[in-house]
Design goal:
By secondary structure, the chain is of the alpha/beta class. Helix content is 40%, strand content 20%.
Amino acid sequence: MKILVISGSPHKSGSTALLTENFIAGAEEAGHEVCRFDASFKSIHPCMGCERCHKTGDGCVFKDDMEELRPEVLNSDAIVFVSPVYYFGMNAQLAAAIDRFYAFNDKLMTQDKKAALITAFADDEEDACSGLVKTYQLTLRYMGWEDRGIVTAQGCSNADDVLQSSYPTQAYRLGKNF
């Protein structure tokens, strides 16, 4: 299976980056091909809803790093979304990439994909990530994709917090059992 991991993590050694590495290790050990796209270190313009993509058939008006991500999205069997929780939802870097799926939404909705969500957040209350989880679930329902699992690392504001928890193992197992 070809798995695309789209990470919104802005910290190369942060909590969600660590979880991403554990997921990838498990997935690769299981024999899956994994491609990682770090949205925070790419240039992705937000969707402007101009409709050029649908009116002309020439794709998005913005020629940025989404040109690199688009074929990976279309050619993957599964997509894993990774984001820290910012104000109860996903961060802007990941949201911008997902919003730009709109330009090729018609193709995506005909593909049977699997998906997963990995997140980390400092709050000790589980419902602090409920906005992100609900957005993920609604996105999958809209696209007709299959949910393969969610790892919500609560109480983890940094990599040390993650390392002292069972979350790296959960992320690894998610990848291994994909």
